[in-house]
């Protein structure tokens, strides 16, 4: 038979059944918390993955809007400040047909300094290098 017990709010159940031992609330919470965290664990392992869509278009004072490239990169940030990203890229040339290529970047930053190496496939394999500094005010 159920009955209400007058107990202080110490984490124990206030409803007791005869011959049934209930878990204290802190153990039950821990059990469900453990199950919940087990489900979310794989998501936290993927927290450093990202998607980086990027559109670059050339514009000149005399020539106007020129060629462009639309990149759809998937990347990963490492704990040491390094990153890698790569994916398909749609090239929009000034003249001619659009081309689908593969591009990517890898870089690292430390303090205000950073450096990046990029590549592009296609008719010719191309490499690019960038370095600089970022100062916050």
Element order, helices and strands? EEHEEEEEE
Overall mean confidence score, pLDDT: 76
**If helices are DSSP runs of H or I spanning 4 or more residues, what is the number of helices?**
1
Biggest sheet descriptor: 6 strands, antiparallel
CA(first)-CA(last) distance: 69 Å
Polypeptide structure, described:
- The structure is a single chain.
- The protein is of the alpha+beta class and 137 residues long.
- It has two domains: 3-45, no CATH class; 49-133, no CATH class.
- The chain is built from one helix and eight strands, in the order E-E-H-E-E-E-E-E-E.
- The strands form two sheets. The protein has a six-stranded antiparallel β-sheet with strand order 3-4-5-6-7-8, with no helix packed on it. Strands 1-2 form a two-stranded antiparallel ribbon.
- The model is unreliable at 1-18, 25-34 and 39-46 (pLDDT under 50).
């Amino acid at each position: 038979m159920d009955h209400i017990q007058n107990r202080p709010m110490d984490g124990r159940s206030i409803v007791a059944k005869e011959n049934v031992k209930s878990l204290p609330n802190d153990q039950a919470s821990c059990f469900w918390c453990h199950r919940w965290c087990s489900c979310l664990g794989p998501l936290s392992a993927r927290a450093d993955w990202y998607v980086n869509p990027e559109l670059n278009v050339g514009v000149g004072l005399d020539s106007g809007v020129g060629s462009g490239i639309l990149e759809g990169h998937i990347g990963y940030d490492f704990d040491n400040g390094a990153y890698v990203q790569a994916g398909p890229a749609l090239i929009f040339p000034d003249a001619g047909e659009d081309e689908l290529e593969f591009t990517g970047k890898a870089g690292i930053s430390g303090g205000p300094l950073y450096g990046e190496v990029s590549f592009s496939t296609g008719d010719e394999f191309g490499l690019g290098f960038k370095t600089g500094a970022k100062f916050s005010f």
